[in-house]
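Team,

Forwarding the record for the chain on the shared tracking sheet. I've put the sequence and predicted structure together so nobody has to dig through attachments.
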Amino acid sequence: MEPFLKKFFHDVYTKMKEDKEVSNYCKFDSQLLTSFTSSLYVAGLFATFIASSVTRTFGRKASILLGGANFLAGAALGGAAFNIYMLIFGRVLLGVGVGFANQAVPLYLSEMAPSKYRGGINNSFQLSVGIGVLIANLINYGTEKVKGGWGWRVSLAMAAVPAFILTLGALFLPETPNSLIQRTNDREKVKRMLQRIRGTDDVQAELDDLIVASETSKTIKHPFKNILQRKYRPQLVMSVAIPFFQQVTGINVIAFYAPILFRTIGLGESAALLSAVVTGAVGIATTAMSMLIVDKVGRRGLLIFGGIQMFVTQMIVGGLMGAKLGDHGGVSKAWAFVILVLICIYVAGFGLSWGPLGWLIPSEIFPLEIRSAGQSITVAVNFLFTFLVGQTFLAMLCHFKYGIFFFFGGWVAIMTAFVYWFLPETKNLPIEKMDKVWREHWFWKKIVGENVELIIKEEAT
């Protein structure tokens, strides 16, 4: 919003409104603006390691509660900000909230869900994020029209509404059976909880798996050290590779800077914000579709299909912007519409695949003894590369220009090949028996040192 830029990022406002010499691709290149955006992710990066200890020691519920409280404080500070320091500090508090929530919520969903529905239920996390993004874009579109130039305050302060719901709701959440057995070892209490959330008295098999996993986890005193062991190597690789690849799809180019990107191709302030709403709606629709089919189609198929879809659209968008958008002026409305449609197809590919599955797969592959540490690594890597992409994108846009789409498209090609060769299918497998997929995989079985004969023997006994 122009009043927001004028108050806090005056150099950007001046380049956008008055400087006719600066390239279309460079108008928003400001380290201060990117610091505002990415400070959230630096805070989240550090917070997730604290969240790991809280989640392991006090339970998933405690981390969700702390996340909500930090969201509340950050929203209040952002809405009341009168200088850049208040604005960024409020953003940091929001980052702490994201760090705790992203660490605990995917774990909570995966542990509470029955194995045959785990993919769909866990994907509701990304669906909810998408709904939040759409609502935020709608709020931005509406508050931009507030006369007097203070609509940005309403936009930032309204983050307190979902923060309040999350904080209050966390008080009423039951703890997961996995966390209860790990922290209390009260088997009867865990059994009653399993019966309650599964809706059946026949939970002994799942309880036995939890007890075995809990006994193993209690032998692990330093989960971050133990995750480096050879037997956990596949999970460690995935905890780094999957969030890394999720970020180098280029989705945060759209998520952070969609209005800026659409203004770059010549759309006005209101039209750019509305276009961000459209892409957000597409993301929600395709994430909902992913929820419905992920436990039937499987994880690998969706990731490969979505990767191909994203790669093709990025190549076309890069080519069109290279051919039609120069350093000055804009593209015609017809070509702007074509680029918007192509970006929507790209967002659809992400919403179907790497968006929700980037959170689902890491949350379901770790054994209980290293689960909180593994999830923290996943979130930390996600935040680190979200920060790096967020911090560098505007400078990259200025220097690479339309080539930015070719850059991210190249990464999409690499990660699709990685999934094809190295990611085993995990659908419909109980979360406490997930180690089986690594021992059967053509590559990972060489690393973990197990063979098919041993698996057959274990299953027989």
